[in-house]
Amino acid sequence: MIPVKTIVKEIDAKKIDIRTIQEAGSILKKGGLVAFPTETVYGLGANALDEEAAKKTYAAKGRPSDNPLIVHIADVQALEEIAVNIPAAVEDLAEHFWPGPLTLILEKSPAVPYGTTGGLDTVAVRMPSNLAARELILAAGGYVSAPSANISGRPSPTTAEHVRQDLDGKISMILDGGSVEIGLESTILDMTVSPPMILRPGAVTLDMLEEVIGDVSVDQTILGNESDIPPKAPGMKYRHYAPKAKLVIVEGNIREETLAIRQLAYEAAREGRRIGIIASSETADFYTHGLVKNIGSRENEKTIAKNLYAILREFDEEDVDEIYSESFARQGMGRAIMNRLEKAAGHLRISAAAVVKRQRFHRIVFVSQFDTCRGPMAAELLRQKELKQEYVIESRGMVVLFPEPANQKAEAVMKSMQLTLEKHTAHAFSESEIGEDILILTFEQKQKEKIIAEYGNPENVYTIYEFIGEEKEFESPYGKSLQAYGECLENISGSIQRLSEELNSFTE
């Protein structure tokens, strides 16, 4: 392909610059390519009725020629030129969802070249809601083919800058309308079968369609790759939306997913690998390693959809080695989100539960009497160890009346080891410290017995010495000299070393 100078011009859908639109329309009429914003993603526009323009589109994108292009129209009447045997239900669908993110598969008319339809006798049609897009379509003659304006296989563009990164020098013009509204491609609904079938999920969901036209089926290959049956939509058989780094979806309940990803990121950090994490607003703060990207809130799936492609592109700039993503609900808009994630990951999925089970404990709680001395010292010492697995390490007290700071003598002896307890405040032991993946370590037998008696004989409660295979107890230095605190710290330090070795042995 001969390089061309790509012109970038800003447009405002609320205040259309007719001269810019006419200039872009003229390029399309002459067989050129123009990228423009829609409500879904940026599209790579060409004259849909020009076979040579279709060839240019495929060449610019590196797109397989059997992957049909969607024809964009500006009014419903335009259907009569490009489609035949139009089902009656199309009128209802158009009334409810056009302009908007719904693409309909119809029988094509002779006016539509096979280059546009990927050799099929059907044509994909939609009417975008973006006003600037519809004005461009009219200026170009009423029929604009527009796949996503990116290199085939890359994350779809949601800003003009994304388009420039992929297609600068390959197309004549980019119309910069800012960030798109939705961020995922349109729903594709095949109207040539009964009942109509969703071939690609999008913002117009199954429930929304069924409210208008009744029964709608779903291509079962949309999610998952367990079947050898090819997807109904030719384009869906190709890998799409992929970042440069390997993307893996971690599946399970929210707790399992976050624990698993945190564990995987910790292991990767120890090995010197740079990890990206796709997290939700609800979980982003939980992760301690890796480059965390907040994709949006699970309470508002529209935010997740809008941010997905941008985040995948951001990871390309960050040069990560691997990306782990949480999974999302597969209902409503979530179906579309997971479809795109699956495609981007090449259907690479791992079980969160299986990862979590590789680690016996995820949290370690040291329990002393007041949580001002032995417990916080042990917790801080363990945090300094080179552990093969990551643990949330805390301390608690059996008798804590208020959140007092660490004992001053304990702080003094810790400083002798270049450590500090300055940020520590005492917390009382409670039922929240009980769990099958929580290791409770007491300093004395009486604390262990009290926990067992008060909380119904919970699992994983040991004295520290018991857990490391010794028969001793830690005497409290409370009320004694600074030397006694130093001796206590020395004893604790030796036990923590043996504890770290024991914990690391779980991975061998």
Structure characterization notes:
Helix 10 runs parallel beside helix 11 (333-345) and helix 14 (408-415) crosses helix 17. The chain is elongated, with a radius of gyration of 30 Å. It has 508 residues and is of the alpha/beta class. The protein contains 17 helices and 21 strands. It has helices at residues 18-29, 51-61, 79-82, 89-97, 114-117, 131-139, 160-167, 206-213, 254-270, 301-318, 333-345, 352-357, 374-383, 408-415, 445-454, 464-468, 482-505, and strands at residues 7-10, 34-37, 42-47, 70-72, 83-84, 102-108, 122-126, 144-145, 173-176, 187-190, 197-200, 217-218, 246-251, 275-279, 291-294, 322-326, 349-351, 363-368, 392-397, 438-442, 461-463. The longest helix has 24 residues, at 482-505. The strands form three sheets. Strands 1, 2, 3, 4, 5, 6, 7, 8, 9, 10, 11 and 12 form a twelve-stranded mixed sheet that branches. It folds into three domains: 7-218, DHBP synthase, CATH 3.90.870; 246-356, Threonylcarbamoyl-AMP synthase, C-terminal domain (Rossmann fold, 3-Layer(aba) Sandwich), CATH 3.40.50.11030; 363-505, Rossmann fold. The protein is 35% helix and 18% strand. A hairpin with a 6-residue loop joins strand 10 and strand 11 (197-200).
CATH topology of the largest domain: DHBP synthase
Low-pLDDT ranges: none
Oligomeric status: single chain
- Which architecture of the largest domain per CATH? Alpha-Beta Complex
How would you concisely characterize the structure shown here?
With 508 residues, the protein is α/β, with parallel strands linked by helices. Helices cover 35% and strands 18% of the residues.
